[in-house]
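Lab notebook, bench 4. The sequencing result for the construct came back, and we need a structural model before the next group meeting so we can plan mutations. Quick request posted to the team channel:

Model the 3D structure of this chain.
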Amino acid sequence: MTEVDADAEVIERARAGESLAWEKLVVRHSKRIYNYCYRFVGRADYAEDLTQEVFVKIFRNLGNFKPESGHFVTWMMSVTRNLLIDHYRQSKGDRLTVSTDENEEFSVLDVMPDSGPSPQTAVEQKEKAAFVRQGLQHLSPDLREAVILRDLQELSYQEIGDILKIPEGTVKSRINRGRVELAKHLQRMGSLGKGMAF
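Done. Here's the predicted structure in token form:
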């Protein structure tokens, strides 16, 4: 059974008022939503709050989801994106900064295997993840969300187009521009870091 089929069954049960089905949906998709929010805002506390807001919105609007219009994940990511845009507009004057919390468990990189990396590899991956997060914060919201959805959420161009409500060509253009801008920022940040004495 695919994720799409499994979602369809659980959604119907959740719509019928089965609380366990709703909990199953939240558990199944909370990591994806949290990661998207975190990568967009760059702060764990904001991402947690936004994730909760997303699920409240999804719960209230679950009756509006139409399976014939597309996949649940695409609809859910559209709801998330709309909420992130609203959040961005509200906090425009108060620019967000990247969290430097040493105890933060989130990683922009893929989840590590159960066997676990060596301590040195874990530190390097954490540093790389923080470096990429900082770079993402320098991109405009349009470019940032395109890069996040493609390279970190691994959605197809068509899914991204559906979420952002833009043509596929525009999706590809934003992803390419976002990658180029991100690479420039990371190079600049790397050069600055090399010149610093510790």
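The two ends are 53 Å apart (CA to CA).
Will bring this to the meeting.
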